[in-house]
TrEMBL record:
Keyword vocabulary terms for this entry: Acyltransferase, Cytoplasm, Fatty acid biosynthesis, Fatty acid metabolism, Lipid biosynthesis, Lipid metabolism, Multifunctional enzyme, Transferase
Major localization listed first in the record, in broad terms: cytoplasm
Active-site residue list: C115, H252, N282
Reported function: Catalyzes the condensation reaction of fatty acid synthesis by the addition to an acyl acceptor of two carbons from malonyl-ACP. Catalyzes the first condensation reaction which initiates fatty acid synthesis and may therefore play a role in governing the total rate of fatty acid production. Possesses both acetoacetyl-ACP synthase and acetyl transacylase activities. Its substrate specificity determines the biosynthesis of branched-chain and/or straight-chain of fatty acids.
GO cellular component: cytoplasm
EC assignment: 2.3.1.180
Pathway(s) it belongs to: Lipid metabolism; fatty acid biosynthesis
The protein's name in its UniProt record: Beta-ketoacyl-[acyl-carrier-protein] synthase III
Organism: Pannonibacter phragmitetus
């Protein structure tokens, strides 16, 4: 049976120039490098410059993904951008990227699933491609979480950073087996009853302010591993594959302890896990494409590799995407 698979043509990422180390943070709030590294694995994060917006990070990541794929914006028909920190309430950050890339055709829109945003955007792109709505999609995760942090709250401000990553997907005919290149299966979930555990205490309709990120860290931690492993097991059930078949596990980069516990529960060997959280902290929707791009550009990810992506975030939302590079 032949089918259409969304195959990856290229990827790119961008981190703002300014680096904020744990030592820098220890001069701002009552914390230490040791506490942050031990609890999270984070050593530094990048912070967008004044006047540098989510769209600017997204444009740089998109340009790098286009160059990696050997394409221009004229070759793309759809942009799907995942963010929880848009430049403005509207229009979408995606249309700002579309304009900056000189794209006057096609369609661009944002999706919002916080830290699961990139997995939700990839799944949306894959669905558009497989049902014939799109041919080539630029999928971006981009965030400036530094703008919604309470810099006096040591329990949250040490965890997050800014950045962007992008991939380009194209619909190609394939055999319909798990040997195909491209997205093989994806599984999305949400459960709004957990919304008070990780949220922003402002918004246009409620407070007419942007607000700050608030989190019950222990509660998030408690749910994270179970939710992540559930959607990954769904992917294994749908394909008949197992943790042993994976070449790479590229999880949302929130916390080293969550990543390690998830990999252990799924029997994924530590050397298959791509970790970049130490270098950029939790960049929400940008973290998976940042980690993916790092592993592609340093030569770890090769054609034919089987890659599991997963994320969990505010809402809660969570999801997995299994793909062959
Ligand atoms: C946030 C997190 C690292 C906190 O670790 P924890 O072991 O649960 O720590 P606790 O919240 O129990 O706090 C332990 C102590 O450290 C203190 N503490 C909190 N933040 C601190 C910091 N940055 N530096 C130093 N001490 C800190 C607390 O005040 C508390 O002190 P107390 O015992 O005197 O009250 C952890 O809960 C976590 O990783 N949660 C998931 C967060 C996440 O990934 N969110 C994003 C999902 S997309």
């Amino acid at each position: 049976m032949t089918t259409i698979r969304s195959t990856v043509l290229g990827c790119g990422s961008y981190l703002p120039e300014k680096i904020l180390t744990n030592e820098d943070l220890a001069r701002m709030v009552d914390t230490t490098d040791e506490w942050i590294v031990q609890r999270t694995g984070i050593r530094q994060r990048h912070i967008a410059a004044e006047g540098e917006f989510t769209s600017h990070l997204a444009i740089k990541a998109a340009e790098r993904a286009l160059a990696h794929a050997g394409l221009t914006a004229q070759d793309i028909d759809t942009i799907i951008l995942a963010t929880a920190t848009p430049d403005n309430t509207f229009p979408s950050t995606a249309v700002q990227v579309q304009a900056a890339l000189g794209m006057r055709h096609g369609v661009a829109f944002d999706v919002h699933a916080v830290c699961s945003g990139f997995v939700f955007a990839l799944t949306t792109a894959d669905t558009f491609i497989r049902c014939g709505q799109a041919k080539r999609v630029l999928v971006i995760g981009a965030e400036t979480f530094s703008r919604i942090l309470d810099w006096n709250d040591r329990t949250t401000c040490v965890l997050f950073g800014d950045g962007a990553g992008a991939v380009i997907l194209e619909g190609r005919e394939a055999s319909g087996t798990v040997a195909d290149h491209g997205i093989l299966t994806s599984h999305l979930r949400s459960d709004g009853q957990h919304k008070s555990k990780l949220y922003v205490d402002g918004g246009p309709s409620t407070t007419q302010t942007v607000g700050h990120l608030r989190m019950e860290g222990k509660e998030v931690f408690k749910h994270a591993v179970g939710m992540i492993t559930d959607v990954i097991e769904d992917a294994f059930k749908a394909t008949g594959l197992t943790g042993e078949d994976l070449t790479w596990f590229i999880p949302h980069q929130a916390n080293r302890r969550i990543i390690d516990a998830s990999a252990k529960k799924l029997d994924i060997a530590p050397e298959k896990v791509v970790v970049t959280v130490d270098l950029h902290g939790n960049t929400s929707a940008a973290s998976i494409p940042l980690a993916l791009d790092a592993a592609v550009k340093d030569g770890r990810v090769k054609s034919g590799d089987l890659i599991m992506l997963e994320a969990m975030g505010g809402g809660f939302t969570w999801g997995s995407v299994l793909l062959r590079w």
